[in-house]
Amino acid sequence: VASAASSRARRGFGRPRTAGTMPPPTVGVAKTKSKEFYDIVRQIGECKNKSDEDVIMRREVMTLRTQMASPKLEKTKMKELLIRLMYVDMLGHDASFGYIHAVKATHESDISMKRLGYLATSAFLDEHHDLIILIVNTVQQDLKTDNYLAVCAALTTVCRLVNEETIPAVLTQVVDLLSHRKEQVRKKAVMALHRFHQRSPSSVAHLHGKFRQMLCDKDPSVMSAALCALHDLILADATPHKNLIPSFVSILKQIVEHRLHNYDYHKVPAPFIQIKLLKILAALGTADKAASTEMYSVLSTCLKRGDSGGNVGNAIVYECVRTAASIYPSPVLLEHCAAAVSRFIASSNHNLKYVGLDSLSCIVNINPKYAAEHQMTVVDCLEDADESIRGKTLDLLYRMTKSHNVEVVVEKMIEFLKTSTDKHVRESTAARIGELAERYAPTTQWFIDTMNAMFAIGGDVVKPTVAHNLMRLIGEGSGDVGADETLRRSAVNSYLKLLQTPKLPKVLLEVILWVVGEYGTLSGRSPGELQDVLCGVVETQPDGAAVTSQAMTACAKLAAASAPPALSPAATKLIELAASSRDVNKQQRSHEIVALLRESPALISAALPVDRSGEELGVDENLSFMDALVSKALAEGASPYQPVAERAPPPSAAGFAASGPEPVGALRFDAYDAPQMPARDYGAPPVRVDASRGAYDPYIPREETATAATASEPTLRRKEGTWGADTGFVSTSAPAEPPVKDEKALLADALFSGVTTSSPAAAAAPPAAADDLFGLGLAAPAPTTSVSSPLDDILSQLSVGGGPAPPAGGGVGLEGFLNAPAPPVSGGFDLLGGGAPAPTIVPQFVRQNAPAPAAPVRTDGMVMSPGMDGVSRPRGKKDPFADLLG
Amino acid sequence: RTAVRRRRTLRPGSKAFEGAKDIRDSRGRASGFGALDLGLNGRGSGRVVVERILGEMTVRFVLLVNKQGQTRLAHYNEIVPKAERRQIEGEMVRKCLTRSDKQCSIVEHRGMKVIYRRYASLFFIVGVDEHENELAVHEFIHCVVETLDRHFGNVCELDIMFHLEKAHYILEEMVMNGQIVETNKSIILGQTVMYDPPPEK
């Protein structure tokens, strides 16, 4: 058909045309350029490989650089040089030296030079380039000229280069051009407005009426441009445009009836406009019965006419099917569509088969019966040699999946995943497998097997949520104890077997480590044995730190499950090694595990209970468990908590505060002060309440912190009795020091060093006695004053290591709790842990270990973060880290 | 003279088209792109960093590549950094040029659809949105070729190379803001030619 069509075009071309603007056919090939130009282009064309081309292009760059810079250059010559520069740019060499010449060419009065200048500029630059600003002025002038060609060239450039900021500079001029006498200008002005809408819908929000007006333009090309713009508007919000349906239907009808004859393409009337209109109708008729009814008749006419329209007719039919499928369904219309779909699917033309599959999946959504007659074809397509067709078939199957066929469909999808290479396709296939398996899984065993297969094949593209769902399924079980145990046992066994495979994908490994840690003992092996297996995994799997830390946690769980709680020798070695790791996460876990395993078995089993991952963890947001402490602190003279908002602004930031209170979360546009060295004699940096054991502080020499910790406790002078404001505190050990340095400096310190500054609250805390810190902090929810004070406020004050809480709240919110493994944040955790009546459970590892972070489940992390363990540990115990750190 | 020798018509069904079975690139450009591509992937960015603009963008790029995998014309309708352009072009060459006649001319690539059509030694490759009408784009390519053909008269690869700017003008007329706006050949060519009036005889 294509060749027949083109020979038709050939004949048509041979006849003299009557159209006034029609160029003589040989114009394009007339030799209008210099021999040098033809030679160089020919050389490029004759390159056999990339390196030849590179040689030529490098030489070109040299030549162009010198020639373009020469002062007396003929205009025709400059044109050629610009085209050569476009080659340089297109073939991947740096042409930036010549961009400015392209911009200059746009200033020329010669129209052909100007047009080329605009073309080259839009090829070289994007709308964020610095030179755009130079173009805007030229464009403004050209939009004003009488020469409509210059106006068109400028409008074309507007469509390609105007960015959000420059829209206002040209907007009014473009709007004026909507009533230009030349239809080409009007068309391009509409497109320019369309472009503004794409860039920044608000800039043309007041001009929607103009688009409707242009739809009625007497010139069809302006009308079709308006259709583009209206289509976008309708996609964004169809409701205000519903009243245009009759207009669209009537335009489509007129086109189908061949009233727009100069847009024929292979004897089909204006096919591209028809398709555009069909898309618009689809958007307008979605879920709107009344609107859809208006369209049925024109759609079926379209469908009928399209059937005999050759290739482009098929495109129209295909679009009709998609429209019919997305509007309110009409059974009659759908029958016609089904017939067309059958024709497509049965076709030997691969493109038609492809769109046939696509349109079938559209109508199958409405009525599954249409798929029945194509069963065999679809099955054949699954085996097709073409990946595109196979992928499309799976799309279709995905939409047809129900619980009865899920096993087959998923099996096919996994096969496809094996052969597919495109990352995007693999990702979406993996996501679909996960979705279908979750929704329709006949048995849990099947689900786990499927997931294992998928992880093994597509582990690189599986989303972590899929893995979390799998873990949750295993963890929560079905409620039937016996069945759950069988399921878990089989999962553990299959995972233990899988562990012998080298190079498992990371997601799968994560699942395996968690499952073995939780349910490993169901396999009948002893916890010690399992720990050895896990330690072996660290050796054999390549993923490094993440795997090691997960294996460590799993070992800890297994150790807790054995009686008496103990690590196997291999696990002990692994964990000891991690204590000196450079990876903070590993280090922290190691310390935590060691510390926990020293506790009484009761505490251990409470912290790491067996099979309780499905339980919800209640979070007491009011911190009511701290009430006792609060009232005790109040009784001892602590001042009640004041919410941040009620506190007096710190005078040290007076200059800043003079300009009004800083809106929370607002951006600051003034510069921060240069960071200053924090004063040495602040007293102990309160960040490091337990500085003497500070495994996490690489910045402050041990010696100094040790002294700080043992130094005489700085007492506090509270000037106004308000807690939390910077001013009130002067550490006695630094009496000469201005109370608190400039707030900005502190913030800068906090941002850039993190450790050396102190939050006001913490600054006041005597380093060794963490209770005082608590005493202060716990003034917070004092029942007498402000019980409702938000948790975040307290936390922002107490978040040790967060630096001074800036007015905007630099503390750690609840979110920080749930998924921040980083040690500095952990100060916040112990708040809960310390006072919690329940075993101290800190959601440290939620991110990797707990199933589905979204669902609050038991958080099976470790108890303490070393940064604060003094707080949460029962007092009087020997410091667990003292010997570790010497 | 070389021009004449290399002049082969792009018409499907022509002798050149029949004979041009060997489309696999043995050396040269494709492998060059491959090396570049690996380098880019090594950075860990498999994703195209393309700034999508709001609204419907149908035609995202039009690419003309010869069967050696050399880019002959690249027309992007959205902001694509230069390095990404090279990468896309390399991937297109590897994906499209290796397909046989028995396969459909639609490829899914990085979340967009790529539709290509071969005319003698030249591949016309168009990247469109995922939900675009593939058949329409396929026909649109033919419409572009017909327009070029009418302008140049029996268009060939070298015509496009010698008159790169004309080919761009034509495409700019036909596609604006990623939308197919004009398919009337007289209007397209009328506009194009006005900027470079034929030399007075």
Automatic annotation (TrEMBL), chain A:
It holds the Pfam family Adaptin_N. Keywords: Membrane, Protein transport, Transport. It is found in: Endomembrane system. Residues 1-29, 853-886 are annotated as: Disordered. Gene3D superfamilies: Leucine-rich Repeat Variant. It comes from the Eukaryota. Its main location: membrane. GO terms for cellular component: endomembrane system; membrane coat. Residues 877-886 have a biased composition (Basic and acidic residues). The keyword Transport applies. GO terms for biological process: intracellular protein transport; vesicle-mediated transport. Residues 70-599 form the Clathrin/coatomer adaptor adaptin-like N-terminal domain. InterPro entries: Adaptor_Complx_Large_Subunit, ARM-like, ARM-type_fold, Clathrin/coatomer_adapt-like_N. This is Clathrin/coatomer adaptor adaptin-like N-terminal domain-containing protein. It comes from Micromonas pusilla (Picoplanktonic green alga).
UniProtKB/TrEMBL annotation, chain B:
InterPro entries: AP_complex_ssu, AP_mu_sigma_su, Longin-like_dom_sf. The keyword Protein biosynthesis does not apply. One of its GO terms (biological process) is protein transport. The keyword Protein transport applies. GO terms for cellular component: cytoplasm; endomembrane system. Its main location: membrane. Residues 58-193 form the AP complex mu/sigma subunit domain. It comes from the Eukaryota. Keywords: Membrane, Protein transport, Transport. It is found in: Endomembrane system. Belongs to the adaptor complexes small subunit family. PANTHER family: ADAPTOR COMPLEXES SMALL SUBUNIT FAMILY (PTHR11753). This is AP complex mu/sigma subunit domain-containing protein. It comes from Micromonas pusilla.
